[in-house]
Design the sequence.
């Protein structure tokens, strides 16, 4: 793909494709975003600060943790360090997406990287794998999700206690989405075994190790085991 | 706006953005060794599973195993819908509907 011609391909079709793929993420973000706004307001953050945090950080779980820490009077360094650790998992997602985002320019990677979240990663990597998906489509998913997150967190902080919680099963939208996208990713028994190993490891690590290292450690380890098994199997088939 | 909060937000933004950007920037324009591509091929399934399972199986502070929650139990019918329909829309709507029903008819 050459970038000069692809720059002009933000057609209505691309946007429609993006909307069709992004709606479960947006739905989930509205539910979680409203809740975050309410909690952040209670922790003492003003709507402007909530909006700025959502725009600049754009990572749900770390924002919840940060709001709680700010609310209990934690200083700058502990909050920033915790955020760094919680969000390190994006290293793996960014690496994985680089397989599908070949030959982007520096500014293009900089723009795309901003929108990498657990949810956009899940949707985009499933779509890339199915084919008929390029970086424009993926960028539309990133930005629609971003708009949903920023606006709903601000709305939550403005509305405060007026937000109805637990409406329409919205709280389960992202879990159901992840479950389905996991099914899309599991294409053979080795992939299934890696997923199972990773999930169980993540649970064990989360239970016994304080902090938020479990996602990155479990997936790193499980993928490595998967690679070793696949290579060993191939070697055996050759000999 | 409180200056300390502003610094916290800027710091959080920087440390979140860097891990998102560095791998994409470094890896997207070079040829990767085959073993690394194969390793990355396992990452989506591994990450999704590592995100989902703790989020539905662990609750509370301090964290404890909570397998008898709607979050965990409803994962099975949701998984079934996903496997049967292979449709993201149907799975999300089915999951939401089930969760809504269970919340409506329990723990009032």
Sequence:
């Amino acid at each position: 793909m050459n970038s000069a011609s692809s720059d002009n391909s933000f057609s209505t079709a691309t946007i429609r494709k993006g909307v069709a793929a992004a709606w479960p993420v947006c739905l989930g973000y509205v539910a979680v975003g409203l809740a975050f706004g309410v909690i952040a307001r209670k922790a003492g953050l003003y709507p402007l600060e909530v909006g700025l945090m959502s725009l600049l950080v754009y990572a749900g779980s770390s924002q919840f943790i940060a709001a709680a820490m700010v609310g209990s009077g934690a200083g700058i360094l502990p909050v920033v360090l915790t955020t760094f650790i919680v969000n390190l998992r994006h290293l793996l997602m960014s690496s994985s997406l680089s397989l599908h985002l070949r030959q982007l320019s520096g500014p293009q990677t900089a723009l795309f990287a901003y929108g990498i979240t657990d949810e956009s990663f899940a949707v985009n990597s499933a779509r890339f794998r199915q084919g008929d998906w390029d970086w424009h489509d993926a960028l539309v998913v990133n930005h629609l999700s971003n708009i949903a997150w920023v606006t709903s967190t601000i709305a939550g902080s403005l509305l405060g206690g007026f937000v109805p919680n637990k409406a329409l099963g919205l709280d389960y939208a992202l879990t159901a989405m992840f479950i389905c996208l996991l099914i899309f990713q599991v294409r053979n028994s080795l992939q299934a075994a890696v997923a199972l190993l990773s999930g169980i490891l993540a649970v064990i690590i989360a239970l016994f190790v304080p902090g938020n290292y479990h996602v990155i450690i479990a997936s790193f380890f499980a993928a490595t085991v998967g690679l070793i098994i696949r290579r060993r199997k191939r070697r055996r088939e050759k000999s | 706006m409180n200056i300390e909060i502003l610094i916290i937000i800027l710091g959080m933004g920087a440390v979140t953005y860097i891990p998102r950007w560095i791998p994409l920037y470094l890896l997207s324009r070079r040829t990767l060794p085959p073993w690394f591509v194969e390793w990355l091929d396992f990452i989506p399934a591994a990450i999704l599973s590592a995100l989902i399972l703790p989020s539905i199986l662990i609750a509370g502070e301090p964290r404890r195993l909570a397998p008898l929650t709607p979050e965990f139990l409803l994962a099975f019918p949701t998984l079934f819908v996903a496997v049967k329909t292979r449709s993201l829309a149907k799975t999300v709507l089915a999951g939401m509907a089930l969760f809504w029903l269970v919340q409506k008819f329990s723990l009032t």
User: Anything to note?
Assistant: Residues 1-7 of chain A have pLDDT under 50 and may be disordered. Chain A touches chain B through 96 residues (CB under 8 Å). Chain A has two domains: 3-185, 187-239.
